Amino acid sequence: MRIAVAGDIHFEGVLADRLQDPATALAPAAAALRAADVAVVNLETSVGTGGQPEAGKRFTFSAGRAAFDALAAAGVDVASMANNHALDFGRARLPSTLRAGKDAAPALTVVGIGRTARQAFSPALVDVRGTVVATLAASAADQDPSADPTRQWAATDQRAGVATALDPSRLLATVRRTDRRADVVVVYLHWGVQGQRCPSADQRSLATRLVRAGADIVVGSHAHVVQGDGRLGRGYVAYGLGNFAWYSPGTAATARTGVLTLAVRPPRERSGRARVVRSSWWPARIGEDGLPSRVRGDDTDAFTAERRSLRSCAGLAG
After folding, report:
1. What would the pLDDT profile of 118-165 be if each residue is shown by its tens digit?
2. What phi, psi does 41 have (nearest 5°)?
3. CB neighbours of 225 closer than 8 A, spacing ≥ 6?
4. Which residues, listed in sequence order, are joined to residue 80 by a DSSP beta bridge?
5. Hey, how many other C-beta atoms are within 10 angstroms of the C-beta on 34?
6. Which of 39, 99, 125, 191 could be stapled to 140 by a disulfide with Cβ–Cβ 3.0 to 4.6 Å?
7. Torsion angle of the four alpha carbons 167, 137, 11, 286, in this order, in degrees rounded to the nearest 10
């Protein structure tokens, strides 16, 4: 089977008008996402109606429920909202977000956010020709409460919010439970240091613990640049998928993006482990329109060389 993963998406700035036609909002990348059996991205924005911009935040992102329609139309099966922008318009908007997410199913399943921690950590389960692929999400970004209120957004047993893994105990326990009921386990994390091309020690430590707990694929975003991908023990890790649909290409590094597609061999039996047997990028660059467009020729060769370099500094195998 093929599992495709891509980075951060929102609909700010030049991208806002694209939600007037959700069916074509992410058209340049849709073919690469639709080609997979399961496609997963990070939706880096609050969604719905109501609420007010969160006080103290420099950037607050907002989109209507059409954002979910746009993802589904582009071939996305699972969207993570475990990130530091999901509640940019406060908890007052959260009921609207959850209703919109429920209405988007079954075409799109939203993970990493919920009415309780149990719901926020619950995996999306997709049956691919009899093989169950489970995707769960959490935010492990280092959040300074004096500068960013998102640490306060954590879902608890009594409070709605996002799945957080600054203390990874609950995430690791959920991965262990999920591994017993699914054939392939994917974990999507919001983590790392913004602007850093090589993963932090915290990322590398958590990735190792997740693979040991039963995660077959560990991917993430938040650094706004592509970080290394490759094999880690029995699992496959892509530390940073970069921006994907973003209001500005920014620098050459932040404009670099793509869709990572992993060919996965399911386990022969439930007690076995799935294995990534091949990986490939649909290499792209974010343009002035905020959308990813495929690169070719010399730029493709540069992407390949950069990927090898990033894999080395991430301590991953080919």
Report:
1. 999 999 999 999 999 999 999 998 655 555 566 789 999 999 999 999
2. -140, 175
3. 195, 196, 197, 240, 242, 253, 254, 256
4. 42, 111
5. 14
6. 191
7. 100
* Helical segments of the chain, H only: 27-34, 66-73, 94-104, 117-121, 169-181, 201-213, 252-255, 298-313
Which pair of structure tokens corresponds to residue 303? 């992407």
The kind and range of the H/E element at 65 are: none
* Of 200, 121, 126, 133, residue with least CA distance to 168: 121
Of the CA atoms within 13 Å of residue 220, those in its CB half-sphere come to: 31
Q: 264-285, pLDDT tens digit by residue?
A: 999 987 678 999 999 999 999 9
Nearest to 102 by CA among 119, 85, 82: 119
DSSP 246-291: -S---SHHHHEEEEEEEEEE--SSTTS--EEEEEEEEEEEE-TTS-
Q: Average pLDDT for residues 215-233, to the nearest whole number? A: 98
Q: Which residue has the tokens 């496959």?
A: 236
Given a contact cutoff of 8 angstroms between Cβ atoms, the answer to whether 198 and 204 are in contact is: no
CA-CA distances (angstroms) from residue 172 to 202, 218, 316? 15, 12, 21
Beta bridge partners of 188: 137, 219
Identify whether the C-beta of residue 136 lies closer than 8 Å to the C-beta of residue 111: yes
The whole model's pTM is what?
Answer: 0.97
Return the closest-CA partner of residue 41 out of 62, 1, 70: 70
Residue 24 DSSP symbol? G
* Both tokens assigned to 24: 């074509």
| Structure tokens given for 169 | 């105990």
For 188, phi then psi, to 5°, come to -110, 120
Instruction: Report residue 313 as tokens.
Output: 């500094």
